[in-house]
Amino acid sequence: MFQQTVNNNIGFGVVGELFLEGPLRAQPGVLNTTTAANNIVGRAFTVRDDATASFDTAADPQPMEMQAGGAGVFAGILANPKVYASFGTVAGGTLAPTLLLPNTTIAEFVQETAGLIVQLPAAFAVGDYLYFLTADGSLLTAAPGAAAPANSTRVPGGRVVRYESAAAGLAVVSFNSNVTT
After folding, report:
1. Which side of the chain, N or C, has fewer Cβ within a 10 Å radius?
2. Predicted structure pTM score
3. Angstrom distances, CA of residue 142 to CA of 68, 137, 156, 161, 171
4. CA nearest 77: which of 151, 131, 129, 124?
5. What would the pLDDT profile of 106-116 be if each residue is shown by its tens digit?
């Protein structure tokens, strides 16, 4: 059978992948979220346990533990989906694609980037501020000067830098955890 239709728009990337060249800062951490179903690539995470033991002096150093959402220190947005082993899904089987990671996975959390691809749940425009729900780390936006979404925290310096949409969709965002909001 030959192709019968052509899509109007092409896909430009995968959630959690870097999109723009520029400053990049990331850190490793272990996923430890109360509801492991929230450990989704492209969501915001906070530090759950800062593991204050030093790797240089501690006999048994511990990695930092990160949780989806939360009210603690911003740890970053869970990124780089292609570096994690995938075990599929219950419904789709072992080869089903998924962005969900189990607790205890050592993961990468981007704290600063010129552009990261994320999924946004509602309409957005270039320049909108980036927020995350403290309950689960889901990303949201609001126009500059508008009220912050309920039960959310601003991603430090976060804003939409590429593309706009009248509905849910993929966007490119930039942020910097050294910026005060």
Report:
1. N
2. 0.88
3. 20, 16, 14, 13, 14
4. 131
5. 999 999 999 99
